[in-house]
Amino acid sequence: MHNPIPVTNDIYWIGVNDHETDLFEAQWPLPEGVSYNSYLIRAGKTALIDTVKKTHLTQYVEKVRRLAEGGRKVDYLIINHMEPDHSGSVPVLKQLFPEMNIVGNKKTLDLVKEFYGITTDTTTIADGDVLDLGGHTLRFVLTPMVHWPETMMTFDETSRVLFSGDAFGSFKTLDGGLFDDEINIARYDDEILRYFSNIVGKYSLMVQKAMARLQGIDIKVVASTHGPVWKKAPSYILDKYDLWSRYMAEPGVVVAYASMYGSTLEMAEAVSRGLSLAGIREIRMHDVARTHPSYIIRDAWRYKGVILGSCTYEMGLFPAMRNLVELLDEKGLKNRSLGIFGSFGWTGGAVKNLKSFAEKSAWSLVEPVVEVKCAPDEHQLDECIALGKNMAGALSV
Ligand SMILES: Cc1cc2nc3c(=O)[nH]c(=O)nc-3n(C[C@H](O)[C@H](O)[C@H](O)COP(=O)(O)O)c2cc1C
Ligand SMILES: [Fe+2]
Ligand SMILES: [Fe+2]
């Protein structure tokens, strides 16, 4: 989308779509790309809100030039977030628009100095401060750790647009439609949650604090740094982030398994059969060796039940399962019902490690824990079915 798109009076979306980057932050697959959203406010003064990743600088600068007075004058750059997917264009932009004053909080400006060596023509703002652009008044809301320490939001009190930084964002490019009423939201839902759970979810407590700060503010538009702009019904995305950051879940179960020769897979299938027999209709099975953990984390965030099964590999968990368990621990997801099972050939190790995760996570453990040697027999498969049924029971209470 090469043209600036008006968001409301005087405010334009000047973001870019990234179809080329395979891995966001060098680790999260982007099969449907991602957008970096930047905005320009053309009031008495011209202000930019965030920039874009430096890979997309050329297209970005073209858009700024189109809107900036005489193609050259930008008065302010407001930096809500310094992660380079948004700040990467700052140094070149500063060269192109030398009079541009960089606005951020103390922590922002420290990072501006450390990343880009820029120390002059900056304005330090504090929580609640306002900046009068002439016709538009901006208020700054500091929201630390949603996603970095310097993160803040900028609220345009005149048009009631909230520039929210990474909060309320999504993976997936903007394919023609920018606003929530121009897209099929269902096509974005999975990527909204995969983005939330993997990028922002760890900071759920800080998301809750930020949402408390936003209480009582009449927000008409939510304009994040990634994904759609929420204009028709901003409550859609606000409510989702509120629920997810309180670890609320939908009824359903994710079954993630690791299996080299099929024994653990057989157990996983029996567990899932048990779930189905007990009435569970949302069952997501993932082979951890073949599905990137970001998708499994997404489903764990969505569903109340999480069942993990692993074969033993070199005295411990199968590596991809170890990675998943470490990530789940790191993301700090709470309030889930957990089922565990696994297999071994001689001394074992997989189930022992899953039990450690059960203790560490404090998720409620659903019995039985099923552990088999080499291959499950009929009785052990029945136990797996019982695990599935008991999980269904745990979800219905
Ligand atoms: C490469 C490899 C390494 C293994 N390492 C161990 C081990 O350290 N300890 C153990 O008890 N079993 C070990 N096993 C045995 C498997 O855990 C056991 O056969 C299990 O039932 C395999 O389940 P699967 O059919 O789901 O892959 C290993 C198997 C393989 C193929
Ligand atoms: Fe970020
Ligand atoms: Fe970002």
| Second-tier CATH architecture of the largest domain | 4-Layer Sandwich
- CA gyration radius, whole angstroms: 24 Å
Distance between the termini: 48 Å
The neighbouring-strand order within the major sheet is: 1-2-7-8-9-10-11
Per CATH, the superfamily of the largest domain is Ribonuclease Z/Hydroxyacylglutathione hydrolase-like
Largest sheet: 7 strands, mixed
**Number of extended strands:** 23
* Small molecules in complex: flavin mononucleotide, fe (ii) ion
Counting helices, strands and paired strands, the structural category is alpha/beta
CATH class of the largest domain: Alpha Beta
Distinct helical segment count: 12
Question: Which characteristics define this entry?
Answer:
2 domains; 397 residues; seven-stranded mixed β-sheet; 35% helix; binds fe (ii) ion; Metallo-beta-lactamase, Chain A; elongated; binds flavin mononucleotide; Rossmann fold; alpha/beta
Question: How would you describe this structure to a colleague?
Answer:
With 397 residues, the chain is of the alpha/beta class. It folds into two domains: 5-245, Ribonuclease Z/Hydroxyacylglutathione hydrolase-like (Metallo-beta-lactamase, Chain A), CATH 3.60.15.10; 250-396, Rossmann fold, CATH 3.40.50. The chain has helices spanning 57-67, 84-87, 90-96, 106-116, 185-200, 204-214, 235-245, 263-277, 293-302, 319-331, 350-361, 378-396, and strands at residues 5-8, 11-13, 16-18, 23-24, 28-29, 34-36, 39-42, 46-49, 76-78, 101-104, 122-124, 130-132, 137-142, 152-156, 161-165, 221-224, 250-258, 283-287, 303-313, 316-317, 337-344, 364-365, 370-373. The strands form five sheets. It has a seven-stranded mixed β-sheet with strand order 1-2-7-8-9-10-11. Strands 17, 18, 19, 20, 21, 22 and 23 form a seven-stranded mixed β-sheet that branches. It has a five-stranded mixed β-sheet with strand order 12-13-14-15-16, with no helix packed on it. Helix 5 (185-200) packs across helix 9 and helix 6 crosses helix 7. The protein is elongated and about 80 Å long. The termini are far apart. The mean pLDDT is 97. One fe (ii) ion (FE2) binds next to helix 2.
